Amino acid sequence: MSERVLAVGLDIGTTSTKAIVVDTESLAVLVSTSLPTPVEPSGSGDMRRSSAVVEAAKQTVAASLSELGADERAAIRSLGVASLGEEVYLVDRFAAPLAPSPSWYNTGVAVPGSDVDPTLSWHKLAWLSANRAALGIRDEDVAGFTSLSGVVASSLSEPIADRVTIDETHASRTGFYDPVGRCWHPELLVEAGWPASTFPTVVSPLSHAQPISARLASDWGLPTGVTVTSAGHDHLCAGYAAGARNAGDMFLSAGTAEAHVLLFHGPGSAAELPSGIALGRHVTGDLYLHAQLAAGRIHQQWSGLLAPASASTESAAPDPSLLALVGTGTQTGVDLLGVTAGTRPEQVLAAITDGIAFTARRVDETLARLGGVTVASMIAAGPPTHDARWRLARAELAIAPISVSSLKEPTAVGAALISAAARGLPSATPRREELHAAPAWAAGFRALTAALERAHGRRTDT
Question: Strands 6-12, 16-23: parallel, antiparallel or unpaired by DSSP?
Fold first, then answer.
């Protein structure tokens, strides 16, 4: 009988910080704890003081571990930290943060007139440079920068001098890292107001583990040898947990924003990307392409308008005469065609769900073309995957066989599994539920797809 191996996963999200303990063989989550992620409103928009986030992270982990018995704590081998993609912090030579930083969604600090995506880390570093005097940042103290998960992972580890690192998934979201050539662009960092010496060492989440702080290990009742890993960007950690780990896999993270992440080996045609599509390095080292839809937000808006009078959308057959044209990216507009006085609310909601699925298909076809890869499998996770109509529409319209992960807290589970892999420990293959199309509705969906293609084509032409 193999030795039981447990791992801790820490997911630092926009609004909440979650800590779970997972069995790496069964993938059972033994305990889960959540606390708010601290944020500080300011005249420059929401800021994040990483010392407050670190304290919340420690409290969350401690609360989870307190629910375990001594034998379970003795089985813990590693701890992984996942965080938001674009938050970045200036740190000293021991990777301790020097100042608060704008939250990832704080685009109010973006450099006016810049053609760099306003969410990327480049703008945060430029703001920190412009405000260094007010923030009390001394140039001689700045040894580099790292992600929020990097700051937290370092705070949980034994201090290592002159070894500032950033994992490759977060480096890919800075705006001045080349994920194809795996190198920094020094001139872009200088434009942000910092010398090239500020670049941290880029590491792979699957191979970079540090010993946990001896004091924390003692306080938490953990055995010797536990390691800590900055596991990476939250969406990518969730995809890893769900099983998106090989070129040709696509992960669909369904929520308020629906993220589509396609893994591929080579650069394909991705050298010049359309607006709204990002290129980066995955946890596994493969390249990925990322796009998103405002799918959940659109559905929430329309459900709020129509739900009080609506019945289940599951039984509403696909209707080629009732079309919902849904935009890509962050666009939340929906053009409804064919609505009449007799159209029922559930028919409208079904049409919107189908329209979103069709737009998602077009996005996925674009990603596959840019990556030069055939999508082998699609793996979805998130609350919308429990909706019957969502499942039916995606089974019909997805560009590859699609399955749904039933993992709870996939980002935290992914962080835990990545931390285990970073020290050479195996984990189980995640179980998923295959979605199947409804044969009786196949002809209806074919007709609906053709009608949506014509309608989108006319809108593009005009």
Answer: antiparallel
**Residue 66, both tokens:** 């307190």
Question: What does 324-390 look like in DSSP terms, one character per residue?
Answer: EEE-SBT---EEEES--TT--HHHHHHHHHHHHHHHHHHHHHHHHHHHT----EEEEESGGGG-HHH
Please state whether beta strands 210-211 and 227-233 pair in parallel, antiparallel, or not at all (unpaired): antiparallel
Tally DSSP H helices, then E strands, for the chain: 14, 23
Torsion sign, CA atoms 86, 164, 19, 205: positive
pLDDT tens-digit series, residues 305-352: 876 555 577 778 898 999 989 887 766 688 999 999 888 888 888 999
Q: Please tell me the number of Cα atoms within 13 Å of 326 on its side-chain side.
A: 29
Q: What H or E segment, with its residue span, contains residue 298?
A: helix 295-306
CA dist., res. 344 & res. 282, Å (int): 44
How do residues 364-390 score in pLDDT, each as one tens digit? Answer: 999 999 999 999 999 999 888 988 999
d(CA 228, CA 17): 17
- Coil, helix or strand at residue 108: helix
Residue 19 has pLDDT above 70, yes or no: yes
Instruction: Please give the DSSP secondary-structure letter assigned to residue 409.
Output: S
Per-residue DSSP letter, 160: -
Distance CA 430, CA 414 (A): 11
- Residue 462 is given by DSSP the state -
CA distances from 373 to 248, 276, 287, 329 (A): 6, 19, 12, 22
pLDDT computed for residue 344 by the predictor: 86
CA angle 127, 132, 134 (to 5 degrees): 105
Q: For residues 267 and 286, is the Cβ–Cβ distance under 8 A?
A: no
Contacts for 176-183 with beta carbons within 8 Å, 24 or more apart? Answer: 176/122, 177/202, 179/279, 179/280, 179/281, 179/287, 180/267, 180/270, 180/271, 180/279, 180/287, 182/281
**Cβ-Cβ contacts under 8 Å for 12 (sequence gap 6 or more):** 37, 53, 57, 81, 82, 83, 84, 148, 149, 152, 234
Q: Please report how the helices 442-461 and 345-371 are oriented relative to each other, as an axis angle in degrees rounded to 10.
A: 70
Give the contacts of 99 (CB within 8 A, at least 6 positions apart). 89, 90, 128, 132, 135, 136, 137
- Domains of the chain, with CATH numbers? 6-234 (3.30.420.40), 245-406+430-461 (3.30.420.40)
What is the pTM assigned to this prediction?
0.90
Note the helical H segments in 15-69. Answer: 50-65
